[in-house]
Structures are given as structure tokens and as C-alpha cells.
Recover the amino acids of this structure.
């Protein structure tokens, strides 16, 4: 990536210069429309919506409601988030978009979200070039372990952690379940938190970032594809700045819900979503073992402890099939067998 910076020049950047990219599927029209209303209300100049096999007439309804504001890219079937966002980013670049803001179709930006992102972006561009910087909106649910408690190891996961789990964090995980453990969403947070990886939801950057690092990898299909994509920014010397004043509300639920304070071990053990378990575990294993800069030995220790915990919960729940599924997914991830598994079609 380039070391050229903006210097002390005033960066020309306004909401109408921003193109929002989102991907929708299934029956999520109400969620999508709420997101599009929000971004248009914050001054976004254009939206690219990837129809990833939605079961409603996306193109016709968006044309009637938004006119030329929203362009639809039709994929004809659910091709996964990786291919969907790849198509959306590609289209945004084709139509000349300079600034691209990625959002999931259930990520509704709260009032002032885009202004906060742009303000921080302008300031950080004084020291970083366009191809080295991305800013990310803050989704409290993504950094919370439930009950409104922020888990700081989700901002700064230990090197070698697997899906946020590290054996050194076990004492912390026990402590934060106490009434006085952890920090809450309504407490003061740093204005900017620098991350090693990020999500699609709320990611804002100049098109130069995608020109420098490439597009999302289709073989990830779904899950961890956003982390792999954004990891290329920081591995290349760039920065991802989480802007805590730029708030995004997660309206939908994309993963099996936790019951009370239940851990992810229990979620995987009881969930009937075999597709989510397989691709989630497989891709996380591959990403951690092959894409992250970490001690592979430490990573494997955390992986096997995590898998052992899931297996124990599954066996106790009478779900030996879940135990076998998780082990198979981990084996495929370590072997680098990515792409679509015919046994788990989307």
C-alpha cells in the first residue's frame, strides 16, 4: 500500500459522494427497506443492492420506491455473502463510486452515523493514504456477550484465539459473568478503536482500498469472509478504525440465538442449523490456521480445546451428530477444502 498521505489538505468528502452496498436474500424486505430509508435520510448519494436469491420482487419494488437511488444486481440464487458483496463492490466501482459504505441488509445506521464516520475519516486521512484506511461503524451487539456487556477481548482478541476463544481468557470469561464484571454499552468508550479485522456491516472506505487488496474471496462462501477481506487491509500496513460514535443497529438475527448467558459451545451443540455450523467452523478454522499472522501451535491448542468443549456439550445434549459435524468442519478447514460443500447447499 502507498505511503502517500493527504497532508494538511482539506479532504473533499460529503454524504452524496458515498455509495452504499448491501446484500439481501430470502424474505427480508422490511429490514432492507428500513436500511435504505436510513442511508438515504443521511444523504447517501446512491445504493447498490445485491439480490442474492430473495423471494420477493426486489428490483421492481425498489424501483417504485426509490427510483434511480437504488440499483439492483441480480444473482438469481443465494450465492453467499462473499460472492454477494464481491458483486456489489465490483458494481459500485464500475459505476464510478469513489467512496463505498458496506452494510448488511439488517444494519440500520442510527442518526448521525455517517457524519461521524466521515468526520473521523477526514481526520485520519491527514496521516494515511486512501488505500490504507477504512473506518467502521460501531455495532454494540457485535461486541457484546449479551445483557449489554461489552467484551473487550472482542476488540483486542489474543493472538492465536479461535472464534474469540483463548485459554488465557477463561478467568476473564468467568469474571465478566459476575454482576460487576465487564463494561457496559452506556459507559464511556474510546472515540476510535483500531482493529486487526472488521465486518462488512458498517465498513467505509475509498475505492482505492478494494483496488489495493482485491475483492472478497468467493471460496469462503459465507462466514469469516468479511474478516479475511478486512485482514488484508491491516496485513498490508493499513488501519481499520472503529468509530464508536457511529452507531448501527442490528435488526435481524444471523446466528442461533443464545439463551440467557449461554456460551457459543451450547449454541453449536443444540442448534439445528447444520449449514451455519459447518461453514462457520470450517471457515474460522481455515482463516485462523492459514490467513492470520499468529503462532499456529497456540492457535491449534485453542481450537482443540474449543472443539472438545463443543463436543462435550453436544454429547451431553444427546447430539452426537453435532459432534461429528463440528469435527468434520474443522478437518475440512485445516485441509483447506473451501467452496460449496454439496451436502450443505445454500
Amino acid at each position: 500500500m502507498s505511503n502517500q498521505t493527504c497532508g494538511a489538505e482539506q479532504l473533499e468528502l460529503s454524504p452524496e459522494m458515498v455509495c452504499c452496498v448491501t446484500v439481501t436474500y430470502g424474505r427480508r424486505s422490511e429490514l432492507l427497506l428500513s436500511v435504505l430509508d436510513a442511508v438515504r435520510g443521511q444523504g447517501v448519494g446512491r445504493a447498490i443492492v445485491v439480490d442474492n436469491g430473495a423471494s420477493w420482487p426486489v428490483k421492481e419494488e425498489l424501483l417504485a420506491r426509490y427510483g434511480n437511488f437504488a440499483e439492483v444486481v441480480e444473482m438469481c440464487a443465494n450465492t453467499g455473502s462473499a460472492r454477494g458483496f464481491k458483486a456489489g463492490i465490483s458494481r459500485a466501482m464500475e459505476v464510478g463510486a469513489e467512496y463505498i459504505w458496506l452494510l448488511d441488509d439488517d444494519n440500520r445506521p442510527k442518526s448521525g452515523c455517517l457524519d461521524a464516520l466521515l468526520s473521523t475519516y477526514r481526520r485520519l486521512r491527514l496521516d494515511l493514504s486512501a488505500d490504507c484506511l477504512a473506518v467502521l461503524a460501531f455495532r454494540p451487539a457485535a461486541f457484546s456477550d449479551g445483557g449489554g456487556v461489552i467484551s473487550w477481548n472482542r476488540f483486542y482478541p489474543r493472538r492465536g484465539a479461535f472464534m474469540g476463544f483463548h485459554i488465557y481468557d477463561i478467568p476473564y470469561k468467568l469474571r465478566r459473568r459476575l454482576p460487576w464484571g465487564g463494561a457496559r454499552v452506556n459507559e464511556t468508550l474510546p472515540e476510535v478503536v483500531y482493529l486487526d479485522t472488521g465486518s462488512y456491516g458498517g465498513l467505509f472506505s475509498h475505492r482505492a482500498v478494494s483496488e489495493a487488496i482485491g475483492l472478497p474471496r468467493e471460496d469462503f462462501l459465507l462466514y469469516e469472509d468479511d474478516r479475511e477481506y478486512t485482514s488484508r487491509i491491516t496485513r498490508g500496513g493499513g488501519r481499520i478504525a472503529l468509530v464508536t460514535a457511529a452507531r448501527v443497529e442490528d435488526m435481524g438475527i444471523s446466528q442461533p440465538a443464545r439463551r440467557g448467558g449461554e456460551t457459543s459451545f451450547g449454541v453449536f451443540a443444540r442448534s439445528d442449523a447444520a449449514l451455519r455450523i459447518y461453514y462457520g467452523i470450517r471457515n474460522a478454522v481455515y482463516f485462523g490456521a492459514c490467513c492470520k499472522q499468529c503462532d499456529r501451535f497456540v492457535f491449534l491448542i485453542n481450537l482443540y480445546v474449543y472443539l472438545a468443549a463443543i463436543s462435550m456439550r453436544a454429547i451431553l445434549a444427546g447430539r452426537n451428530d453435532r459432534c461429528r459435524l463440528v469435527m468434520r468442519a474443522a478437518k475440512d478447514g485445516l485441509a483447506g477444502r473451501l467452496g460449496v460443500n454439496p451436502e450443505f447447499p445454500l
